[in-house]
Amino acid sequence: MDLKTWKSRDAVDAQSLKEALTAPYDAIRNMSRFRQAGMNDFATLFGPKMAVVDFKESGFVQHGGWTRHKVETGDNPNGTAFRVPTTGTYYIFSEIFLRADSDTNAGRHWWMYIEKRTSPGDEDSSVHLTSGIVQSEVKKYHMSNSANCIAFLEEGDYICAAIYSGYAWQNPIQDRDIASRMGAYLIAPGEASDGNEF
């Protein structure tokens, strides 16, 4: 984004001043972004398994060219990966709700990762950008897990949320298409990482 500047003694008219004030807001409003809400049902996660979350197509909203893709590999081939349309530094978030199976199958430790891949199903190229962990024992109740990060992504990369557990977990009984979600927002366009990812 090029910001309007003036030299000493330059005349400043109302139109150029308006453009200088509104250009940053227009740029922010048009940043690449997506939001995904609602998780499709999956078979009980009897571990150890690593399953990419399968999000509902109806809950996908995007600006700037984001697209959804099935991973077609791993413990959940229907899992959803999102293709990055614009190179830059992004804020990425995910929150997933699961419930314990029963009194006899208590839910215990489970991890949720935000992953970067070079193609939707390429597990070998997966890079864990960040993760969240739940260590409580739960019976017949829900438990949330969340993670977020700032990361440099290149056009053509894919990101997804993956769950790993060695115990029995199921989908939320009442997800209402809001409990489980993922998204990303471009905060700094650019062709090179500035080293500020965390």
Automatic annotation (TrEMBL):
**What name appears for this protein in its UniProt entry?**
Uncharacterized protein
Listed SUPFAM superfamilies: TNF-like
What is the scientific name of the source organism? Answer: Streptomyces yunnanensis
- Superkingdom: Bacteria
